[in-house]
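Subject: Polyadenylate-binding protein-interacting protein 2 structure
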Amino acid sequence: MKDPSRSSTSPSIINEDVIINGHSHEDDNPFAEYMWMENEEEFNRQATLMKSFLLFVQIEEELWEEEFIERCFQEMLEEEEEHEWFIPARDLPQTMDQIQDQFNDLVISDSSSLEDLVVKSNLNPNAKEFVPGVKY
């Protein structure tokens, strides 16, 4: 059996459209693959416009996001105003007399109930004092 790659007869090339080095013989301009460079300034201008457009889109998205966050905060504030939330300026007493009146209301008037609490307590009076951050 003969090896076809070692054949002594080579095929005759009749087709004139043979491509050598990426160019066919019919190409009039051997630099056709470099013709895009002719419009390099236009390409660069379009690339700059595209970069500007993408930057504009990014900035627009950031503005939309900021507006969305602002609306969320505004809705949150409106929701707080609708409900009865603790508002220090409104709910805290402004004068010392008002503070003293509230303090007087907190004083335990019956000392016998205090002694009952101490007697019934489950706390260990001999326990070490708790100090935050110290490990025992």
